[in-house]
Automatic annotation (TrEMBL):
Gene3D superfamilies xrefs: Classic Zinc Finger (3.30.160.60)
Domain C2H2-type: 70-96
Organism, scientific name: Suillus luteus UH-Slu-Lm8-n1
Origin: domain of life: Eukaryota
SMART domains, alphabetized: ZnF_C2H2
Name of the protein this chain belongs to: C2H2-type domain-containing protein
Entry-linked PROSITE patterns: ZINC_FINGER_C2H2_1, ZINC_FINGER_C2H2_2
Molecular-function annotations in GO: zinc ion binding
Swiss-Prot/TrEMBL keywords: Metal-binding, Zinc, Zinc-finger
SUPFAM superfamilies: beta-beta-alpha zinc fingers
InterPro entries: Znf_C2H2_sf, Znf_C2H2_type
Amino acid sequence: HTICLWDSGFGVPCGAYISVSDLSKHLWMHGVNGPAKSVITCAWGGCGRAPMKRESVVRHVEEVHLQVKYLCDQCNASFSRRSSRNAHVVKSHPHT
């Protein structure tokens, strides 16, 4: 769990206690919704990143701000993206 630092207006962070698994739903309440290709600026704790596609915001918050790591359960290699971990497992541990 983590505290949401998304700017809820006037520079005040949200402050809600959220789980990473609920991050997408929570950011939806902050307006991170609409068409996948719509452009949104990250409002997490003064982030200075250029605006990005809506479909990338949750992944950006997970990787950059929350520093979520996905571990390989076979060799403990660490990945910032679930898809990278899954590709690693298929390639490096095909018989598990």
